[in-house]
Amino acid sequence: MPATRPSLVTTHGGARRPAHRPRIDSAWRAIGAWLASALHVRQTLRIDDVRYKERTRTPLRRSLGKHGEGEKVYDVRFPGPDAPAPMAIHATRHRVFADLTPCARVESIGVLRPLVRPGWRVFEVGCATGSGSALLSELVGPSGGVVSVGIDRESIRFARRRYRRANLGFELGGIETLDGETDGAFDAVIAHRAPDPGSGSQDAELKELWRVVAPGGLLACRTTQVGDTGTPGETTEMRVRTLCRDAEIDHARSPDRGVTWVLARRPEDRPGPE
C-alpha cells in the first residue's frame, strides 16, 4: 500500500500547498520550512491524516544537526472517531519517525520482502517507531501476524497509536519477551540488531531467537559489522553457523550494500530447538 504523500499546513492561516509529484515533495518541504522560519510560523505536517505540530520554529534538520539541540518536539494528533489520545514525540538522531524524515528501517525490511510470506507469524526485535513493522504486517497479510518489540517506551507508545492494525502488535521489551513462547512459535524472527559479539549473552540470545523459529522458518539478523576479510556480518555469521546447527545460511543485501542480513533457515524436517 503506497504511503500518502504529506501536505504542508501552517498555523498562520496560509493555504495548503500539497506536493503533486514524488520528486518535488522534498522541495516543497524545504520551501515550506524556509518560509515558516522567515515568517516565524510553526508548521503542522499532515500524513495519512496524522497531524504533527511543531513546538518550535527551528527546522528538524537544523535541530538534529551538529550545532542543533539534538531533538525536536512535536504534538501529534491521530485521526478517527476512536482516535487514541494525542501525544508529544521527541525526534532525535536515534529516534526516527518515518513520517518526518527518511527512515532506513523501511528500506531494511524491504530487502526481506521476497522472503516473508503471506500468512506467516513474525517476531520482530528492535522495532523502533514501527514503520518497518507496518511494512511487515502488509507482507504477511490479514491471515498472518506480527509481534514487534522495542526497548524505547516513547517509540512503542507512538507505534501503537500510529500503526493500528489487527495483525500487528507492539510490546515494550526485548528478547526476554519470548519467555513462555513454545518452540517453533514463529515462521520468521527478525532482529534489527544482532546480539553484540562482545557481550557474554550473545550466544544465549541467538539460541533463544533460533528456538522459536518454526520448521521451514527464517531467522534474519541485521548487521553492519565487517570482519577481517571485509565481508559484512562476518562475525555474526560465524556465531549463527555455530549455534544454528543444520541451518541453511544465506545473505540479503540492499543494492548499495548498506543493509546486510545474515539469514538462517531451519530445515522443514527438524522441529524444535537444537
List the helices and strands and how they pair.
Blueprint: E1 7-10, H1 25-38, E2 43-47, E3 50-54, H2 60-63, E4 71-77, E5 87-92, H3 104-111, E6 121-125, H4 131-140, E7 145-150, H5 153-162, E8 168-172, E9 186-191, H6 202-211, E10 213-223, H7 234-243, E11 248-253, E12 260-265
Parallel strand pairs: 6-7, 6-9, 7-8, 9-10
Antiparallel strand pairs: 1-2, 2-3, 3-4, 4-5, 10-12, 11-12
Helix pairs in contact: 3-4
Biggest sheet strand order reads: 8-7-6-9-10-12-11
- Under CATH, the topology of the largest domain can be stated as Rossmann fold
Q: State the name of the first-level CATH class of the largest domain.
A: Alpha Beta
CATH homologous superfamily of the largest domain - what is it? Answer: Vaccinia Virus protein VP39
Number of strands: 12
What is the mean predicted local confidence, pLDDT? 83
Secondary-structure-based class equals alpha/beta
What's the Cα radius of gyration?
20 Å
**First-residue to last-residue Cα separation:** 38 Å
Biggest β-sheet strands, sense, barrel:
7 strands, mixed
User: What percentage of amino acids are in beta strands?
Assistant: 25-35%
- The total domain count is 2
String of helices and strands? EHEEHEEHEHEHEEHEHEE
- Helix tally? 7
Low-pLDDT residue spans? 1-20, 226-230
Helix coverage percent of residues? 10-25%
Query: What sort of overall outline do the alpha carbons produce when their principal axes are compared?
Result: elongated
* CATH architecture grouping of the largest domain: 3-Layer(aba) Sandwich
